[in-house]
Design brief:
Function (chains A, B, C, D): Catalyzes the phosphorylation of D-fructose 6-phosphate to fructose 1,6-bisphosphate by ATP, the first committing step of glycolysis.
Cofactor (chains A, B, C, D): Mg(2+)
Helix content of chain A: 40-55%
Strand order of the largest sheet of chain A: 3-2-1-4-5-10-11
EC number (chains A, B, C, D): 2.7.1.11
Order of helices and strands of chain A: EHEHEHEHEHEHEHEHEHEEHH
Keywords (chains A, B, C, D): Allosteric enzyme, ATP-binding, Cytoplasm, Glycolysis, Kinase, Magnesium, Metal-binding, Nucleotide-binding, Transferase
Number of helices of chain A: 11
Number of domains of chain A: 2
Number of strands of chain A: 11
Oligomer: homotetramer
Family (chains A, B, C, D): Belongs to the phosphofructokinase type A (PFKA) family. ATP-dependent PFK group I subfamily. Prokaryotic clade 'B1' sub-subfamily.
Structural class of chain A: alpha/beta
Chain lengths: 328, 328, 328, 328
């Protein structure tokens, strides 16, 4: 099987994440080192359909290791959900001589990759690239660590001004279904309270915490709200809190897309390099429809089918318990 | 006159700004070096009225040079606008033995200081501390440089994701009346367009620029909107642009209070130290009702009266002209 | 057993590491939350001998989560290696009412803790705090992630100037016996070659790599040298390379103690909080002479005896293999 | 005169400095906006001699605003000091159609440019680009502000570990003839003492300061040493201090080339853009053999002859005086 692969196509899809470039670099250089050719597919699945494909060599990935974003760009692509779209995509990559794929992205990316690989019998390996850390099969996804560092840098800055004015800040962070960033950064940022999609927190319970913090004369008070919190986002939470509790002047910050950018952290650069390296190695070993991931300090593989079907509750019990303890 | 001052009171008032702590440190240590005593007044004018005043020595300002915010805290104070409030404040500081003041803040702070100094014949020197850079009498105000660095760091991160998705970003920065941060960071961040309070930009004119950028295949497109822009903030601008121009998917980021925090830049730490040093030196030389400031590389003084009355158009002509040239 | 503990003593010992303050905070607040009292022992074991011990409450650890270094200070202590020293230490902490200990540090710290705990039958839990990541029983030690980020930030800066001048840079990083930082940062920084204590690299082999890089017209060339590399440090390596290979102008940078400082990364703050929380919980559950650590995403415990006796080869095979592949 | 210029050549020469790329971008885009063509000369004067010259358009400077180093590379060039070298250079640029030059660099760069411009009657405008801030005619040179921020970031990190161990650190910063970085960063970093090339400080005087700091129980003690200090660099100073004063364990850090790299600060990006813009505008207005610079908030010009002949003492008096006051 190994010998049959001649040209690997690599692409990024879904939301971009810091470390994607480091990962592309690892895929390209590992493939070339192994004697294979590489094509970069631009704008994810859309680029397959539009035949927006470029040849890549070692130098095309020079000096990208440290850059945020993705040089291959990314897009969401509706056409690829249709049989016609995928057929067109297949014909295009076939014409380019691409006979194996490395797909960097999240859930949606892997769903497309799984179907495509079955339909056209083309080998594919997935790499978990999303700041949300919401995939089964890897302790961490690419970009998650960098996003956490970006968020705590923002929290540290906001705490300066919160403490100077005795103000209460509600900071909304990314995570529609996953509270990973919120929980992690809430602890790392010393937040008073953390609102997660996975766990309902009533407004009264929140106010009780804030009242107790105010009584203890804490100098700054920060509440982290995950995008997907059931109370409807930081603006709503702030409004409802202020109706009943006006000890502090409350302010809201929505960090938004800031969280997707930035030079990847050391952790994400190494993870990106290891996953890119492993993806190519596994493809050449004849593996297909798998995802590469990190467990402890080891690179492991999971079938895409299992990765897509399974759920992993990533919020460590001790961390949830801690949120009530460390802010006293 | 010099010998008559025994104890200097220092306080921060209005919005906090990075560098205020470095400035407090310089005031305290210079005064002590000169054989004077120092009191820190907490929460600005409110602390005078509430007699929230602490004695300070060299060690009370150890390890604060690099911290954002202000250890003396700040607040807006309505009571100080009344004669009764100021009388109470005066009696309190008199009881504490404070016979001269250093006031760190902006317009509002200086207005209060000017009136108070006249009413009770107490010497006062003002230090321009605000991220807005909107004061007459100094090329730069404390915190402005740090805020600019914070904003361009955010723009750099957002550009990563903007470029990966071919997206258009509207980023709102602080500046209700002053476009300093917007103009400076628009140029430093390579923005396509910059909307300033001082200069009206029509939505059609803006769309024309964006169309031209799209035609030139620019990889990312960022529009900086000052808080005080006449079109009504970034959300409104984005909405009106998208109604007529849907080439890109548009996103909005409001940087908000993030801009007030953070460890001060080298520039702000040095400026803070020089202004704090100069404020005490001038007080001891018998000066009063003046503001210390930076002109070129020199520390200068301006009477508070003139500083409050005068307007300085701080947007350099060449910078405004450049905005149309550098984004081509 | 749980009920018998009344006052926990916490200290940091050996080289300082980012995250130690976040860890002290977690220990203090968890203990207080559980109804226990806490004392801070200053300067590690030296503070026990000198009775340099302070009472701590929730507020004594406010606003330290984000600070590098350790507020409890650290020192190396020869007296504690003697029976007399340890007896004096024991009498002092007994007088203070301390009946259990949390020791934050590395190998040397744990050796002392193990002996002391046996001699005087005092419960002790160790927390791995060292940037070297050279302890058995935890995938990562406190401060390691932050040190890696500091190093890659430096490499990124040096690459700017290396690329502008077509220069060759030798960068020496910490690690007398452990190549963890060198290997990790070499990969994360895109180094041409990485010299590790665990693996000999001959000068000729190194020159061959550099010649090949020069031929491929790589724009910058960076060699990472671990402190403990057998060739004798970056200056020696550079000198010996330049004798035979003068294609580039070579420069040396020794990062030194820079690597120990800085605000802890999100990863280290969370790790610090979890380990501090777990240390107290384990003490109160009657555990002693154990170390708490991280395996995958779980907090685990190892006996100090095993931790001190065992060796863990922390350089992942794939990472070593990668170093020859990714720099092509 | 304006109409006669058809193609502007731009190059960077001497040591690289953050902001050079932002400056190249401004030169290229301003020239194109004004209807001129632009060539980039690689490796400074060496590229003229080797005819290493590329055509540039608006897109060739996309996404470089935020990058450290210089995409045009830089080198020191001995051949250009000979008449033959310069003649060859002139013939090469003539063949490329270049009829005006923008030279970005320091003293040496300007000396070459002045001679070359006179010999071959080719218009040239210089832009001060060096982290040393040692040029007459501009309050600040390109890269100086960024270098200062890099240095204080390092000092802040080192202070963490210095304070944790009660250690004394000697930090050597760039500046062979100019103490600008040392003085500025010594104040911004809260150093105990600052050794400058412009002002001799005896070892005994230094020890006296350190003794007094030790007596005052300052928690960390940092001495900044400029490269060009008369005592012979940080290693020598440390050695001589330790011979007489062993209260602290002393450590040395040489920041080295780290100081040249990094993404330019907001200040440097704006300065770079303004100077690049002004250089082209002045060339097109018929100016030659001038340097553009910043005075206060204004862009000014100075003849190269005057810039090269004049000395400017850039260490503000108050800053020198402050060094004895603020560290108490």
């Amino acid at each position: 099987m190994e010998n049959s692969i001649k040209r690997i196509g690599v692409f990024t899809s879904g939301g971009d994440a810091p470390g994607m470039n480091a990962c592309i670099r690892a895929v390209v250089r590992t493939a070339i080192y192994e004697g294979k050719k590489v094509s970069g597919i631009l704008h994810g699945y859309q680029g397959m359909i539009d035949k927006n494909i470029i040849a890549m060599d070692s130098r095309s990935v020079s000096n990208i290791l440290q850059l945020g974003g993705t040089i291959l760009k990314t897009a969401r692509c509706l056409d690829f959900r249709t049989t016609e779209g995928r057929l067109k995509a297949y014909n295009n990559i076939k014409e380019e001589g691409i006979d194996a794929l490395v797909a960097i992205g999240g859930d949606g990316t892997f769903t497309g990759a799984e179907v495509f690989s079955r339909e056209f019998d083309i080998p594919v390996v997935g790499i978990p690239g999303t700041i949300d850390n919401d995939l089964y099969g890897s302790d961490f996804t690419l970009g998650y660590d960098t996003a956490n560092n970006t968020v705590i840098d923002a929290i540290d800055k906001i705490r300066d001004t919160a403490a100077s004015h005795d103000r209460l800040f509600f900071i909304e962070v990314m995570g529609r279904d996953s509270g990973c960033i919120a929980l992690n950064c809430g602890i790392a940022g010393g937040a008073e309270a953390i609102l997660l999609p996975e766990k309902e927190t009533g407004i009264d319970e929140l106010i009780q915490k804030l009242e107790s913090a105010a009584k203890d004369k804490k100098s700054s008070t920060i509440v982290i709200v995950a995008e997907g919190d059931k109370n409807g986002g930081a603006y709503n939470v702030a409004k409802r809190v202020q109706e009943k509790f006006d000890f502090y002047d409350a302010k809201v910050t929505i960090l938004g897309h800031l969280q997707r950018g930035g030079s990847p952290s050391s952790f994400d650069r190494v993870l990106a390099s290891r996953l890119g390296f492993a993806a190519v190695k596994n493809l050449l070993r004849g593996q297909t429809r798998i995802m590469v991931g990190l467990r402890g300090n080891d690179i492991v593989t999971t079938s895409l089918e299992e990765a897509l079907r399974s759920k992993e509750f990533k919020l460590a019990e001790d961390m949830i318990e801690m949120t009530n303890v460390l802010a006293i």
